[in-house]
Write a structure and sequence with these properties.
By secondary structure, the chain is mainly beta. Helices cover 7% and strands 46% of the residues. The protein has one helix and ten strands, in the order H-E-E-E-E-E-E-E-E-E-E. The chain has one helix spanning 6-15, and strands at residues 18-24, 31-35, 40-44, 49-60, 65-66, 76-77, 83-87, 99-105, 115-125, 130-137. The strands form three sheets. Strands 1-4-7-10-9-8 form a six-stranded antiparallel barrel. A two-stranded antiparallel sheet has the order 2-3. Strand 9 and strand 10 form a beta hairpin. It is elongated.
């Protein structure tokens, strides 16, 4: 017989005090395009589409963050550049390069309006919350 953690899950989800939105570029065309004539970056492709919105939490990871290998070497960055999102299990599974937008935050007003790129989706899923590694955008 498995352990029923539904009560714990409800308590934890009530503690997720950030209002989040998850956006996805389904066709791979979102991003800036370089105009080679003028040297300007211009918006290109279609707009990203919203995948989910709801409660969550964006927190500093408190650990060193490994960046993807460059030329066979993995760099380790200071913890101040590493963030994690805690998402309810009811949220859809995030994909690499999805964008997470913080619409509002009870814990940290400076998080409101910040955007993060999903850098790693397999950080962990606990019985009560899904954990995703983030990188700061802009």
């Amino acid at each position: 017989m498995g352990l029923d953690l539904s009560g714990v899950r409800r308590v934890v989800e009530k503690m997720l005090g950030d209002e989040l939105e998850l956006w996805r570029d389904a066709d791979g065309h979102v991003g800036d395009v370089l105009d080679e004539q003028t040297g300007e970056l211009k918006p290109g492709g279609r707009l990203a589409t919203p995948v989910w919105n709801g409660p969550g939490a964006v927190v500093k990871s408190g650990q060193l963050v490994a960046s993807p290998p460059v030329g066979g070497t993995t760099a380790v960055l200071p913890a101040t550049t590493g963030y994690q999102a805690l998402l309810p299990l009811s949220s859809p599974k995030a994909q690499l390069d999805d964008v997470l937008v913080v619409k509002a935050s009870e814990r940290d007003a400076q998080l409101a309006g910040r955007r993060f790129r999903v850098a790693e989706t397999e950080v962990g899923t606990f019985a009560v919350v899904r954990v995703v590694r983030l990188e700061v955008l802009g």
